[in-house]
Design a protein that fits this description.
alpha/beta, Rossmann fold, two-stranded parallel ribbon, 19 helices, 13 strands, disordered C terminus, binds NADP nicotinamide-adenine-dinucleotide phosphate
């Protein structure tokens, strides 16, 4: 084995098996392999049929994504290397046909497992099946591969988030992963739900718990040293490649960017000084490819699976306070089309739960119920309360992560960086110490605008005008309201019913006017 071999040469002639390519990270992985490892032999991608689309149709629609425009332009034939395999990780043997299975077992040497359920509050059994059983099945398949070299598994930096200091090592868990899989097989859903609180312990949700169980399954029942685990923190849009700002997932902070930019989110529970450990999606993807390369070319037969914490170095920390300021800055500079309310151009984050609750009542619930009431009277479909319920559950999921800080060790990542050639360091970059957060969050905001909301830049002047008009109306109404209150006080007549009634009427009109009444295409319905 040539240890100095370039990574793209290493992948030349090898066949790979990928799961989760219809998802956010899997797509980026597939694109990166096609672009930077063009001589790869074949890439088998496991895709389940969904919404009446067959796997090969879903694969075709992936290639239509702007993400693949560059690689297809450079090499239109690259698609031919990708073979869709119909399957579902929830089915025995992943539901792969015998014919496909024999091709994969004969041909594939490297496996990348990205498929999972990333819903934080997934019912316990579903989370176990998607995040633990799937790993068991991938191990089973890998063991049958004639040329098997390495299995790369995507975990999360929050798998042991009840710890403050997280090294690149396994931590013991409170259950034998195989026992848990057995329970999930025979227990009823209700029994599993009853069992969940005692097993979850200090875990905030079923997602982080099942990710920690999956890691321990790989440690005790996996393929030992021929395993690489990459643990990214909060994965956000691409940093550099194939374009800055690409994202297509509504998970995680995208919801914040949209709801803040659309003027809906006006307060957030979080510590300004806590690190928002965002990691651009191209970073863990490059780390996965580099991790597999190192595992195969520089194998240490004694060791356990290698773990890479994929988080930002302390030297380039990004804080929740920075995010809150930058969201406000970008909402003003590059407003999203058709905002539901005039976006807030100031910081919106506070660690005080009482303040957050009060702000939710006064800035979210009261206006939402008021405007939905008006919509009902106007015989239109109410929507704001529904949206705020979704935003509320999104914030509930994020709150655990916005008020805490963690310290992750990154020694394995640094060691890996050291042994890579200069060329590979450039092609398969994962060092974020030079990332410019101001520019990155602007690109992220633009990526959400372009690739998720499908908004066009030529709408910007209209949106700016719309916001300015609403701001002027809002200022006039606020001025009138203030005048009315002062006048009432000066008249010593504040309790007079008529003045209070007029003040309430103004409040009512004011909150109604600060909303966009057109049902429009608000993407809140997509929030999980
Ligand atoms: N995004 C993050 O912030 C983040 C952070 C840390 C770690 N991770 C890890 O990274 C991995 C990928 O995350 P992501 O953000 O790309 O998630 P995602 O966008 O939700 O994608 C999940 C992928 O898994 C597939 N999948 C789910 N259940 C399946 C099943 N039963 N059979 C076949 N395929 C199935 C989905 O296919 P369908 O399209 O058919 O549903 C989809 O392709 C996960 O392991 C996650 O834990 C993500």
């Amino acid at each position: 084995m040539d240890f100095t071999m370039d990574m793209s040469k290493f992948y030349a002639g090898r066949s790979l098996f990928l799961t989760g390519v219809t998802g956010f990270m899997g797509k980026v992985l597939l694109e990166k392999i096609l672009r930077s490892c063009p001589d790869v032999s074949k890439i088998y991608v496991l895709i389940r049929p969904k919404k009446s689309l067959l796997p090969h149709e879903r694969l075709a629609s992936i290639f239509d994504s702007p993400l693949f425009a560059k690689v297809i332009k450079e090499n239109a034939n690259c698609k031919d290397k990708v073979i869709s395999v119909s399957g579902d990780v929830l089915q025995p043997h992943m539901g792969i046909s015998e014919e496909d299975n024999s091709h994969i077992q004969e041909d594939v040497s490297i496996v990348f497992h990205c498929a999972a359920s990333v819903r934080f509050q997934e019912p316990f059994r579903d989370a176990i099946e998607s995040n633990v059983r799937s790993v068991d099945r991938v191990i089973e398949l890998s063991k049958k591969m004639r040329k098997f070299e390495v299995l790369v598994h995507l975990s999360t930096a929050f798998a042991y988030c009840y710890r403050k200091h997280i090294e690149e090592k396994f931590y013991p868990i409170n259950v034998n992963p195989k026992d848990l899989l057995n329970c999930s097989r025979w227990m009823s859903t209700e029994m599993m739900e009853k069992l969940a609180p005692s097993l979850l312990g200090d875990h905030p949700n079923t997602y982080t718990y099942t990710k920690s169980v999956a890691e321990n399954l790989l440690l005790h029942h996996g393929i030992e040293h021929r395993t690489v685990i990459v643990r990214p923190s909060i994965v956000t849009s691409s940093w550099k490649e194939p374009m800055a700002g690409w994202c297509d997932s509504m998970n995680g902070p995208v919801g914040l960017v949209i709801t803040f930019g659309k003027g809906l989110l006006r307060t957030m529970l979080g510590k300004r000084s806590a690190a928002a450990n965002f990691v651009p999606v191209d970073v863990p993807i490059n780390l996965m490819l580099a991790g597999a390369w190192k595992n195969v070319t520089q194998r240490n037969y004694e060791s356990e699976p290698t773990i890479y914490n994929c988080t930002n170095p302390d030297s380039n920390r990004f804080l929740w306070g920075d995010l809150s300021d930058l969201l406000a800055y970008n909402a003003k500079l590059l407003p999203l089309d058709k905002p539901a309310r005039i976006p807030l151009y100031g910081s919106s984050i506070s660690p005080n739960r009482l303040r957050n609750k009060l702000e939710w009542i006064f800035c979210h619930w009261i206006p939402a119920y008021t405007v939905d009431g008006i919509l009902r009277i106007a015989r239109k479909r109410p929507k704001f309360v529904r949206w705020y319920k979704k935003i509320n559950s999104m914030c509930d999921c994020l709150n655990y992560f916005t008020v805490r800080s963690w310290k992750w060790e990154n020694n394995n990542k640094q060691e890996l960086q050291k042994i890579m050639s200069d060329k590979d360091k450039k092609t398969f970059y994962f060092d974020t110490s030079t990332l410019d957060w101001n520019k990155y969050i602007e690109d992220y905001h633009m990526g959400v605008k372009r690739y998720i909301l499908h908004e066009k830049m030529d709408e910007l002047p209209n949106t700016r005008k719309w916001i300015q008009r609403r701001q002027t109306i809002s200022k006039i109404l606020k001025g009138l309201l203030l005048f009315l209150i002062l006048y009432s006080l000066l008249q010593y007549d504040f309790v007079s019913q008529s003045n209070i009634l007029i003040a309430c009427l103004f409040l009512f009109v004011h909150s109604a006017i600060s909303y966009w009444m057109d049902p429009g295409q608000q993407p809140i319905s997509k929030l999980r």
